[in-house]
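Exercise 7. Given the encoded structure of a 312-residue chain, write a plausible sequence.
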């Protein structure tokens, strides 16, 4: 599926001057609508991928700036060369024409001065026989995306990943890792030049959209369906948590939208603390009423003077 030419702002349904919160809110709405776990319609998965790609670019300040400046060719910006190894730069980029090195008509030593002297990443290396003119250079840092479920992020632990070309790694996922956080694998980036050290590999975490839970920092939100009589009379009902389930007391007279806090049931933090889980009351009514149920509701309607629109 070709998505390189899509308008990321149009994909999310926001204007070009949309705030970070506007973009985040639009993504959450569309992701819940098209997530393959909840939407089985044909094309929903492709739509979800388009929405995710658009959000990945627009939520990142640097990527968004390049996209605003270069449009569909934002990946070909000069910043792209920073993630390439020195040897790839000399070959003219990544094979897609995105990065080019123009040797021009200058002296070859000027080129080395540009790479080593001005950038400061190279160092002189003795080649023996009294020759101090050799150079070595640290390999480039690389970055890859690491998708995790909310449960994997909450529990952490070891995970084996593959990054193509037979490169397998065992990664220690920090407990409570957050969306956008980077995990550094020292020495697993681009190869060094002429004996220089290898660069680092950074894994940027992307949390998959969860079919039940919504994230706000360390706090989690989950809808809590209740019956009209449970909301009116109060009840103790089960609620889903990341680790399983718990029971929460719904106070009498609760309306839809009321938040019930379960302290410490959110995402854990690096310091051992944890956010909260908020169960958001959602009053549901039967789609089809039995005869006796209808009679009871009609009886209630005839004797009750409650009017939720009266004070509006």
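Solution.
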């Amino acid at each position: 599926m070709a998505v390189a030419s899509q308008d990321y702002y149009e994909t999310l349904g926001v204007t070009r001057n949309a705030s970070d919160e506007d973009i985040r809110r639009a993504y959450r709405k569309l992701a819940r609508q098209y997530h393959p776990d909840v939407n089985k319609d044909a094309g929903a998965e492709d739509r979800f991928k388009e929405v995710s790609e658009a959000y990945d670019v627009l939520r990142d300040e640097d990527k968004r700036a390049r996209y605003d400046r270069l449009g569909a060719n934002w990946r070909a910006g000069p910043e792209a060369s920073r993630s390439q190894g020195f040897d790839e730069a000399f070959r003219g980029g990544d094979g897609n024409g995105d990065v080019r090195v123009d040797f021009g008509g200058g002296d070859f030593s000027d080129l080395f001065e540009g790479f080593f002297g001005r950038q400061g990443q190279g160092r002189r290396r003795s080649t023996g026989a009294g020759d101090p003119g050799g150079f070595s250079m640290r390999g480039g840092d690389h970055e890859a995306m690491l998708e995790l479920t909310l449960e994997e992020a909450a529990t952490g632990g070891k995970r084996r990943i593959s990054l193509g070309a037979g490169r397998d790694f065992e990664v220690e996922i920090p407990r409570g890792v957050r969306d956008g956080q980077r995990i550094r694998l020292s020495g697993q980036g681009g190869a060094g030049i002429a004996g220089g050290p290898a660069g680092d590999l950074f894994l940027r975490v992307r949390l998959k959209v969860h079919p039940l839970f919504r994230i706000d920092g360390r706090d989690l939100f989950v809808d809590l369906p209740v019956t009209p009589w449970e909301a009116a009379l109060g009840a103790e009902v089960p609620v889903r948590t990341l680790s399983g389930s718990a029971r929460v007391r719904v106070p009498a007279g609760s309306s839809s939208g009321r938040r019930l806090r379960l302290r410490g049931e959110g995402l854990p933090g690096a310091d051992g603390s944890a956010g909260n889980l908020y169960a958001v009351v959602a009053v549901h009514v039967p789609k089809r009423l039995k005869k006796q149920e209808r009679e009871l509701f009609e009886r209630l309607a005839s004797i009750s003077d409650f009017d939720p629109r009266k004070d509006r």
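Remark. The first strand starts at residue 122 and ends at 125. Students should compare their own answers with the one above.
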